[in-house]
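> call design_seq(struct)
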């Protein structure tokens, strides 16, 4: 069995599952984190070497314990992808402040907890990659995105700070901005009038994350932005 381990948070039916499949296909043992235990268990039966680790990433102690459990059972992760996301729509007057606070826990604080728990082993090994999947809100504050844009912007800046600290020690940190509508059943229903090329597929996102996680040291990327060819930006 491969000694390469990839830990992925937010393993749902879309991007998270596609990431798990891509890294399992690439020979990694995949630690899949999410709150939905039954969905994780079903996916684990499909992927050789994958293990389900039910966890709420907003629970710092639980996330730390899960990171330790992954290391004990599978080995120290070579790749970590923080894909869990908290979102909410509404302008600054309409949002519930508690929702924004929760989204900071999911998007920003969980990234900090993951990095503090898992980056030291990467530094010791002299290699590793920490990726974070983001969206356009990490780069601009749209009026109706006040419920989560601040947390995504903070997430990106935290990742940049981590990159400046970890790159010189052999650990690649990258922020992958997904500037697109992801191709899912509910987004297809919401945008029923749009052609196929309007959407970005979870598999395409996973392929790009695979590429970034395996870039040669002489050509690492930090700010990676992916979007369909017809997307306005």
């Amino acid at each position: 069995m491969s000694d390469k381990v990839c830990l992925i948070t937010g393993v749902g039916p879309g991007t998270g599952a596609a990431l798990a499949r891509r890294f399992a296909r690439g020979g990694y043992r995949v630690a899949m984190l999410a709150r939905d235990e039954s969905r994780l268990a079903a996916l684990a039966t499909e992927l050789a070497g994958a293990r389900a680790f039910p966890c709420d990433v907003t629970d710092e102690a639980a996330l730390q314990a899960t990171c330790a459990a992954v290391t004990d059972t599978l080995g120290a992760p070579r790749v970590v992808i923080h894909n869990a996301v908290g979102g909410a729509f509404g302008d600054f007057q309409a949002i519930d402040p508690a929702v924004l606070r929760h989204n900071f826990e999911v998007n920003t604080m969980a990234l900090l907890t993951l990095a503090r728990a898992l980056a030291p082993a990467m530094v010791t090994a002299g290699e590793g990659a920490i990726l974070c999947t983001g969206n356009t809100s990490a780069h601009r504050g749209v009026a109706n995105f006040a419920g989560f844009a601040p947390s995504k912007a903070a997430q990106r800046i935290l990742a940049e700070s981590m990159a400046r600290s970890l790159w010189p020690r052999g650990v690649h940190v990258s922020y992958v901005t997904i500037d697109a509508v992801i191709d899912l059943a509910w987004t297809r229903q919401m945008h029923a009038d749009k052609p196929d090329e309007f959407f970005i597929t979870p598999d395409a996102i996973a392929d790009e994350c695979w590429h970034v996680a395996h870039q040669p040291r002489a050509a690492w990327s930090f700010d990676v932005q992916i979007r369909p060819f017809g997307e306005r930006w």
